[in-house]
Amino acid sequence: MVDADIKILVIDENRIRASVIEEGLREAGYANVRVIADSRPMVRAIVDADPDVVFIDLENPNRDVLEHMFQVSRAISRPIAMFVDRSDRDMIEAAVDAGVSAYIVDGLKKERLKPILDTAISRFNAFSRMREELDRTKRALEERKVIDRAKGVLMRLRAIGEDEAHALLRRTAMNENRRIAEVAQSVLTAADLLSGGKP
Amino acid sequence: MTASRPTVTIRAGFIPLLDAAILILARIKGFAEEEGIDLVLVQESSWASIRDRVALGHFDVAHMLAPMPIAASLGLTPFGGAVITPMCLGLGGNAITVSNAVWYGMSLAGADNSGDPKRMGEALRAVVAERRRRGQSRLTFAVVHPFSSHNYYLRYWLAACGIDPRTDVTLTVVPPPYMSDALAGGHIDGYCVGEPWNSASVVAGVGHIVTTTSAIWKSSPEKVLGARADWAEQNPEALSALLRAMHRASLWCDAPKNAPELVELLSSSRYLDVAPSAMLAGVTGRIALGDGQPQAVPDFRYFAKRAATFPWISHGLWFFSQMARWGQIELTPATLDIARRSIRPDLYRKALGPLGVALPNASAKVEGTLTMETPVATADGRLFLGPDGFFDGKVFDPDLIGDYVAGFEIKGPGPQEG
């Protein structure tokens, strides 16, 4: 059974991640989801959302600000605290591992929270995997560029063809037990030093 | 080198700030490695995350605001779990900055470039009174966390100058790197924070430093190393080794010849990502007070000398006294005992005694009685302590904490902020 009317607030400066989570919660049947992606959190926005559950990403420096607001702001009428029950360590651990912290309005039952938290956690994890994948792709692309430039340097300085330049890089990498991109970077650094900083 | 010793991994959380220097340098200068420790540093962006990840066992130790281990031990944190303070990360390093508009008002009321807390406080009180007369809104001051030295130092200063921090101004929380922007944007009118985030506003032309916390309470404590109590109990040797490594790092950080390297390292994008010129002020203690040029502020900040890393029980209990003063905790024999036992000079002595480090014979002192650098009793008599006076002349005797708290005119939780 899903509590469709439960009000969920997602606070995340990363708009893409915020919408990934929002979408996940909506798909799971939670219609009442709001997102705050501002770098400056405002009491007003929180009051308007009047949330039962608040999710904040752990990288967010504003966690300290928000906790202070939850504690002292008269405008927020219902007390908001971290988690329902400090005894439920597994749930807490899973959330922190995924990179999210959850704040619950006083009185919300653990049974009602569990499926919401599970959804948020799985979406956070999915996003992390996506980001890792993206980082890997980006790195590979950058390494390709470095290798291409190093090949160009070798072709020019040693008057060899592209295949030969590539083979030279690969052989050196194998002999020195380094990655081919690292050897290519060394070539570029050396070329830069020898030419006095000119490209 | 102690290469034969097995390597122990210690996981430490930190926030990129100048006062995390000892922890960071213990790793990158190889002091930890020499002690057989693989010190894994994990950067965080909020004190809440530091607190949670220590409580959950992700970190064994962490760079913490001095009141945090006390608050954790008192059960004022979400997941509970006692945290101890076996070492301090240095003394001083904070200042109070106001917006250009507030500074203008203060300068009309007699503020100058002296950094004198009393004179500056009187000028600010005049600004606060003038705003009230005109029916303008209260000024908003920011600190970094409710359980922070900044919160207590700012409140102490305001209250001692006749400005009630609960009703005459609004207090809020802003992360250090955002302080300058919040000031420029008019979201706050002033703040108390560690360097370089005061000088950053001066460099950006959006604020003026009115005084330093080293003038409010001389040689006052700042960040500490917090260690999970159960981890410390189960790993006494690893903790001792870490304290030895951090002691060596503190000596490195205090050596003037290392200042340029420290500035370059910490201002880089890897850590604080600020202009080296803003960083230099906090490292050298040359602070631009008022609307003046940078001037040498006596005893602004130090990492090692004068027992700067010694975890004084009287420092911890002063924070506890302020938590009680402002209604964050009830002062009872039981809470006092918990706070006292969370400060662990015994572990510091055990780790550093064998190195021949000069250690004071006492673990607590009456704060506010030293007016100048003073030699104190040690096993071999080589230790000087810095002056420790409060600007209003009050004295904190940790054995008379109830009287101390009761003696403040302005105290109590006060009406909540909007």
Automatic annotation (TrEMBL), chain A:
One of its GO terms (biological process) is phosphorelay signal transduction system. The modification 4-aspartylphosphate is found at D57. Keywords: Phosphoprotein. Pfam families: ANTAR, Response_reg. It comes from the Bacteria. Coiled coil: none annotated. Residues 7-121 form the Response regulatory domain. One of its GO terms (molecular function) is RNA binding. PROSITE patterns: ANTAR, RESPONSE_REGULATORY. Residues 127-188 form the ANTAR domain. This is Two-component system response regulator. It comes from Zavarzinia aquatilis.
UniProtKB/TrEMBL annotation, chain B:
Keywords: Cell inner membrane, Cell membrane, Membrane, Transport. It is found in: Endomembrane system. GO terms for cellular component: endomembrane system. InterPro entries: NrtA/CpmA_ABC-bd_dom. The keyword RNA-binding does not apply. Its main location: membrane. PANTHER family: ALIPHATIC SULFONATES-BINDING PROTEIN-RELATED (PTHR30024), BLL4572 PROTEIN (PTHR30024:SF43). This is Nitrate transporter. It comes from Zavarzinia aquatilis.
